[in-house]
Automatic annotation (TrEMBL):
Family matches, as InterPro entries: Calcineurin-like_PHP, Metallo-depent_PP-like, STPP_CPPED1
Provenance organism: Granulicella mallensis (strain ATCC BAA-1857 / DSM 23137 / MP5ACTX8)
UniProt GO molecular function: hydrolase activity
Name of this chain's protein: Metallophosphoesterase
Gene3D superfamilies reported in the protein's UniProt record: 3.60.21.10
Residues annotated as domain Calcineurin-like phosphoesterase: 47-256
Taxonomy, superkingdom: Bacteria
A Pfam family of this chain: Metallophos
Length: 317
């Protein structure tokens, strides 16, 4: 999401072990707490989905990430998935700043987050896809080269304890220096091939930075700002997943907690590690991450905050 689309939010208050957030639209929601049930089967496991770190040297962003990573370590999860927008901001900055940000992120994670991390590409991780960027199309580093150099493949899959995870690249690039949320044809062909080797009973979790399903898109006043909250050709992904045992789609980009469920599939947008870009809660969702707990064939998603006080509050735009 673009920083300028931020709408000032109210504080989230702890209520009986849960968090109660109030959005700029006036709705309030209880954010679910983690399960207390311990793992009872060899196949049970936890993982953490954290997204939109937007790490930057300013606004005490490094300190915030360190606090968040330190708390994530206590979850003793099998692995983490980073949902994109690891830094702020590569898409409109020069290459010197881009390298600085990616190096700063990697060093912060190396020093303070233990265990395996799988990465997702976000719009703020891609060089040149903003009119303000000094990097022009045709430049060697334009696009996702730097992201791939630092974080690896832009789309891929992996398996863990019988579950199949698919990480997608939702960041399309259009001429001239414009970001369009969509899935490219090469990737969709790969997804079709990947799914062909996954049996119909295998539980699947899909990760994408820009959502492919969200209630917020209907309600949100964000939708008139910049790229819409849903990837343009989301239908293509839904079509390919049809007939599979899809359990959840984990999404970022919007910085707010929003979960819906349809035909047994959980569609989650997680709150952001950075809240509203290190300037407070985002539309009622405080800074945090999603704890994902798998017990048998069930997936429980809950939002976990960490102690952080923003140094400044973002002005209402
Ligand atoms: Fe973001």
């Amino acid at each position: 999401m673009l920083r300028r689309s931020f709408l000032k939010s109210s504080l989230a208050l702890p209520v009986s072990g849960m968090l109660l957030g109030r959005s700029s639209l006036g709705f309030s929601q209880a954010l679910p707490s983690p399960l207390v049930a311990p793992k009872s089967r060899p196949s049970d496991f936890d993982f953490v989905f954290f997204t939109d770190c937007h790490l930057e040297p300013e606004l005490a962003g490094v300190e915030g990430c360190v606090k968040c990573f330190t708390q994530i370590n206590k979850e003793k999860a099998d692995f983490c998935i980073a949902g994109g927008d690891q830094v702020f901001d590569v898409c409109e900055q020069d290459l010197t700043r881009a390298h600085l940000l990616f190096n700063l992120y990697q060093q912060t994670e190396k020093d303070h987050l233990s265990g395996k991390v799988y990465y997702t590409v976000g719009n703020h991780d891609v060089v040149g896809i903003n009119q303000k960027s000094p990097v022009e199309p045709g430049a060697h580093e334009y696009g996702k080269k730097l992201y791939e150099d630092y974080f690896g493949k832009r789309y891929y899959s992996f398996d863990h304890k019988g579950w199949h995870f698919i990480v997608l690249d939702s960041i399309g690039i259009e001429y001239y220096k414009i970001f369009k949320a969509e899935f490219d044809e090469e990737q969709l062909a790969w997804l079709k091939s990947d799914l062909s080797s996954v049996g119909p009973s295998v539980p699947i979790i899909v990760v994408t930075h820009v959502p492919i399903a969200t209630v917020l898109g209907t309600l949100s006043t964000h939708s008139h700002n910049g790229p819409g909250p849903i990837a343009a050709n989301s239908y293509a992904v839904h079509e390919l997943l049809a007939g599979h045992n899809l359990k959840a789609i984990l999404q970022g980009h919007l910085h707010v907690w929003q979960k819906s469920e349809y035909q047994g599939v959980q569609y989650l947008i997680s709150g952001a590690v950075s809240g509203a870009w290190w300037e407070g809660a985002m539309d009622g969702t405080p800074e945090g991450y999603t704890l994902c707990q798998i017990r048998g064939d069930q997936l429980h998603l809950s939002y976990v905050t960490y102690p952080w006080v923003a140094r400044v509050q973002h002005p209402k735009s």
